[in-house]
Design brief:
Elements (H helix, E strand, L loop, with lengths): L3 E6 L4 H10 L16 E4 L4 E6 L4 H6 L5 E5 H7 L4 E5 L5 E7 L3 H6 L5 E4 L2 H11 L5 E4 L6 H5 L4 E6 L3 H4 L4 E9 L1 E5 L1 H6 L1 H11 L4
Parallel strand pairs: 1-3, 1-4, 7-8, 7-9
Antiparallel strand pairs: 2-3, 4-11, 5-11, 6-9, 6-10
Bound molecules: adenosine-5'-triphosphate and 1-O-pyrophosphono-5-O-phosphono-alpha-D-ribofuranose (PRP).
Adenosine-5'-triphosphate binds next to helix 3.
């Protein structure tokens, strides 16, 4: 039997992803060691390999078939736009992609003004403003702490993830428009879906009652 390879997004989603696989008997003991420098882990009995990767790289590994299966946030899938099958909403890592800013920026949005939009997600921001709202905007790519942008005058609004809303509240910002709900998804390589259909279908069948 060939190995099935899993690519999991590291960071926030990693623990829940590993717990989910543990519940269906896929344990990767060495992976839990916080001091390990190893990158890939093998479960010989189940013929499974698993690795953690930067979230934005997970869809790339899956599209190219370096991983058969991936677990990553919907935000990353939308932003990366890779060719793969999104097969399951895993129900954790729930949050929302939103347009946020100071209350006063609501008026600029309503009047479709040429505003600056800062985001870690330039493709999502562009798709939302150009294709859904038909509003011309300037998109400024940032890599983190995006809430700073409207505070220091880099942009009028941001497109970012909102979970509890604490970051917005503590910085005098609010949700102005909601783009879409987000959560962790399971994705599958398009060739693997055919070649390993039985094992992948069984995997989904085992996970479904746990969600
Ligand atoms: N409050 C939240 N903030 C950010 N991401 C969240 C939140 N809640 C759930 N998520 C999910 O977790 C993923 C982000 O994980 P994490 O925060 O570890 O990455 P990150 O900080 O964006 O990493 P990096 O910028 O280093 O790639 C998102 O893709 C999203 O799907
Ligand atoms: O609604 P909340 O519960 O406050 O969560 C949302 C915040 O958390 C994330 O940031 P993260 O901590 O990943 O840091 P970053 O901004 O540097 O990516 C996200 O980008 C928001 O800033």
């Amino acid at each position: 039997m060939e190995y099935l390879t899993f690519a999991l997004a590291k960071g926030r989603l990693a623990k829940k992803s590993l717990e989910l696989f543990e519940k269906i008997g896929i344990t990767m003991e060495e992976m839990k060691d916080p001091n390990t420098r190893k990158l890939i882990f093998v479960n010989e009995e189940r013929k499974i390999k698993m690795f953690l990767a930067k979230a934005s790289d997970v869809p790339t590994y899956v599209e190219y078939g370096a991983a058969d299966i991936g677990v990553v946030g919907k935000d990353t899938l939308l932003e990366e736009g890779r060719r793969l099958y999104e097969v399951m909403d895993l129900g954790f890592g729930k949050c929302r992609m939103c347009v946020c800013g100071p209350k006063s920026a609501g008026e600029l949005l309503r009047h479709q003004e040429l505003i600056r939009v800062a985001s870690k997600y330039p493709h999502i921001a562009k798709d939302y403003f150009y294709n859904q709202k038909h509003q011309t905007v300037e998109i400024i790519k940032l890599n983190g702490s995006v809430e700073l942008a409207p505070i220091v005058g880099l942009s009028e609004v941001i497109v970012d993830i909102v979970e509890t809303g604490s970051t917005l509240r503590e910085n005098g910002l609010e949700v102005l428009e909601e783009i879409c709900p987000l959560s962790a998804r399971m994705v599958v390589n398009q060739v693997s879906m055919k070649m390993e259909n039985e094992r992948i279908t069984q995997l989904l069948y085992n996970i479904k009652p746990l969600l």
